[in-house]
Structure to design on (338 residues):
C-alpha cells in the first residue's frame, strides 16, 4: 500500500517546541513547574546550564568519532559482551519489530556502564561488571574522557531527578536513596548513524520507534536533525515531530520505569531516528536505579479511583527483559570472532 507521507516526508514534519529547564535557575518552583508540564505533556524537555562544558562535550564527540572511524574488523574485537558493554554493530538492535521487517537499526554503538571490577560481588548481577575498553595507547585519553563524562552526566541526572521528585510531590532526595541512584545502573552509549536515508515505507530507520527503559535519558546530538517524537502512540496515523538539537543542551526524556512509578501520569514517549543521508553522531546516557530497586507505583500517584496499573518489578529483571527483546543473540556473531 502506497501511502505517501504516511510517516511524513521531512518537509511535512513540524519541529516540536519543548520546555527548557535551566539547572542554574535559583527559582526552583519555576523549574519544577516547567518540568512537570513537559512530563505530563510529552516526557521530553531540554536541560541547559547543566555544568558540563561545551568544550568537554566536543571532546566526547571527537573521541567517539575516533573510535567509529576504525575498520569494522577492529571494532568487532570489542563486540559487546553479555553484560552489555562494548561495541554494537549496525543492525544489532531491532527496536520496533512490527515496523522494521527483517532489518534492524542503521546505527552502530558503544556501551559503557558503571565500572565494577570482576571480583566485586555486584559483578554477578547483569548490568554490573568491568567495561570493555580499547587497548591502552591506541586511542589516547579515550577511556579517561568517557569515564569523566559518565561521572559528570550522573551528577546532571541526579540534579534532574531532584526536580522530578518535587514535580511528583515527593521528598527532593527521593531518587538519591542508595537503592535508587545511590548505586545506579547508568549506561553511556555512543551512537553513530552512518548516513543511510531512512524509508519508513520499507521499514528502514536509523533507530526504530521505541521508548527508553529506565528513569531518564540524557541525549546530546550533533547538529544533524533526525530525532522524532510521537506524542500519541495510539493516534492513527501516528503524528511525528522533530526534536531540534540545541547547542549545549541535553535533550532529556523519561523512560518506562518512570512511567510505571508514576502510574502513567508522567509520559515515556515513543521516539525514533530518521536518517536523511547525512552522517550523524549522538551520545545517550541511560539512567536506571540500582539492580535491586523495586519499581512500584508511587504513593503520590495512586488513589482509590486510580489504582496502580502495573505490578511492582525489580529494575534488573525489567531491564534484562527489555534488552533481550531488542538485541541480537550474541551467538550470531560467532563467525566474526577471532
Ligand atoms: C536511544 C535514542 C536517539 C538519538 O538511543 O535510545 O533514542 O538521537 N537515541 O540517537
Ligand atoms: Ni531512545
Amino acid at each position: 500500500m502506497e501511502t505517501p507521507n504516511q510517516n511524513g516526508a521531512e518537509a511535512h514534519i513540524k519541529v516540536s517546541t519543548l520546555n527548557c529547564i535551566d539547572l542554574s535557575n535559583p527559582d526552583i518552583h519555576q523549574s519544577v513547574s516547567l518540568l512537570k508540564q513537559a512530563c505530563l505533556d510529552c516526557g521530553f524537555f531540554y536541560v541547559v546550564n547543566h555544568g558540563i562544558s561545551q568544550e568537554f562535550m566536543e571532546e566526547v564527540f571527537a573521541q567517539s568519532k575516533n573510535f567509529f572511524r576504525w575498520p569494522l574488523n577492529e571494532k568487532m574485537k570489542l563486540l559487546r559482551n553479555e553484560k552489555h558493554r562494548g561495541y554494537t554493530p549496525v543492525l544489532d538492535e531491532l527496536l520496533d519489530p512490527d515496523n522494521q521487517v527483517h532489518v534492524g537499526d542503521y546505527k552502530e554503538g558503544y556501551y559503557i556502564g558503571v565500572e565494577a571490577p570482576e571480583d566485586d560481588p555486584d559483578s554477578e548481577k547483569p548490568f554490573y561488571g568491568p567495561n570493555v575498553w580499547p587497548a591502552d595507547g591506541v586511542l589516547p585519553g579515550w577511556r579517561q574522557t568517557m569515564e569523566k563524562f559518565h561521572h559528570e552526566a550522573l551528577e546532571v541526572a541526579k540534579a534532574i531527578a531532584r526536580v522530578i521528585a518535587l514535580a511528583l510531590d515527593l521528598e527532593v532526595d527521593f531518587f538519591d536513596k542508595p537503592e535508587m541512584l545511590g548505586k545506579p545502573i547508568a549506561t553511556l552509549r555512543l551512537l553513530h548513524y552512518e548516513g543511510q536515508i531512512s524509508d519508513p515505507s520499507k521499514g528502514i530507520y536509523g533507530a526504530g520507534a521505541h521508548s527508553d527503559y529506565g528513569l531518564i535519558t540524557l541525549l546530546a546530538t550533533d547538529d544533524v536533525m533526525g530525532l522524532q517524537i510521537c506524542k500519541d502512540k495510539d493516534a492513527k496515523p501516528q503524528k511525528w515531530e522533530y526534536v531540534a538539537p540545541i547547542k549545549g543542551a541535553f535533550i532529556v526524556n523519561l523512560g518506562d520505569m518512570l512511567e510505571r512509578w508514576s502510574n502513567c501520569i508522567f509520559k515515556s514517549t515513543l521516539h525514533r531516528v530518521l536518517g536523511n543521508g547525512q552522517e550523524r553522531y549522538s551520545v545517550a546516557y541511560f539512567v536506571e536505579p540500582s539492580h535491586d530497586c523495586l519499581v512500584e507505583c508511587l504513593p503520590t500517584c495512586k488513589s482509590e479511583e486510580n489504582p496502580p496499573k502495573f505490578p511492582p518489578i525489580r529494575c534488573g529483571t525489567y531491564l534484562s527483559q527489555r534488552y533481550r527483546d531488542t538485541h541480537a543473540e550474541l551467538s550470531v556473531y560467532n563467525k566474526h570472532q577471532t
User: Anything to note?
Assistant: The chain has a mean pLDDT of 91. Residues 142-167 form the longest helix (26 residues). The CA atoms of residues 179 and 293 lie 5 Å apart.
